[in-house]
């Protein structure tokens, strides 16, 4: 079973509290490089898939598209 690491957990919580945050803001807030965020984001989506939740998408502008079912959970 896939486990979410601490960083993935923080990012997920941040997106739930503040769904309009951008990738750049997440990078700054958690002192991450673009690559680190990308890696954590990939793991986060793998975890969501394993729970049969829709994945979180990221636009080319750095915004996140979060399905309402994830926010409810």
UniProtKB/TrEMBL annotation:
Origin: domain of life: Bacteria
Name of the protein: HTH domain-containing protein
Source organism (scientific name): Oceanobacillus aidingensis
């Amino acid at each position: 079973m896939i486990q979410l690491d601490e960083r993935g957990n923080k990012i997920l919580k941040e997106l739930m509290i503040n769904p309009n945050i951008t990738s750049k803001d997440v990078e700054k807030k958690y002192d991450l490089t673009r690559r680190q965020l990308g890696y954590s984001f990939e793991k986060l989506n793998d975890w969501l898939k394993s729970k049969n939740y829709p994945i979180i998408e990221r636009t080319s502008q750095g915004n996140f598209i979060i399905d309402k079912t994830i926010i409810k959970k």
